[in-house]
Amino acid sequence: MRKQWVGKNVDLALLSECFEKFLEGKGYKTKRDMPSNGYEILGTPKRFRGSSGGIVVKILGDSNDFVVKLTASQRTHDSIMWGYITTFLGGGSFLLRGLKSEEALRKLEMEFWIHAEKTVENLVGSAER
Questions:
Q1: Per-residue model confidence as pLDDT tens digits over 48-68
Q2: Percent of the chain with pLDDT over 90
Q3: What is the 8-class DSSP label of residue 126?
Q4: In order of start, what are the domains of the chain with their CATH numbers?
Q5: pTM assigned to the model
Q6: Predicted confidence (pLDDT) at residue 77 exceeds the cutoff of 80
Q7: Rounded Cα–Cα distance for residues 107 and 103 (Å)
Q8: Of 98, 101, 112, 123, which has the fewest beta carbons less than 10 angstroms from its beta carbon?
Q9: 28 with 42: CB under 8 angstroms?
């Protein structure tokens, strides 16, 4: 999922730190990178908590026009798909793991977007400070 904000003048480095702290508070180990077009935060669960993989948060653009994307890592996506595919072959445990991963990802996604909205509103104008 993705969301775009325009005209907010938000310090994207500070926003990426806030997202990183959010993920850490949810039990994820994080790694923040700065590709040429923004910020990328990789989150991997510290423990198996119903999710077998991680998530990726990308912040792309500039302080007045930026997009935030939240996606499952390839490993998480593969786990979910593998569960559905193996159902036909008697892979019930893979399906259960895939469903748990999908449920955990949806819950985290809902919480993340609520946090993102509040954080952006709190950081409006922070690029000027």
A1: 554 556 889 999 999 999 999
A2: 54
A3: T
A4: 2-120 (3.30.310)
A5: 0.80
A6: no
A7: 6
A8: 123
A9: no
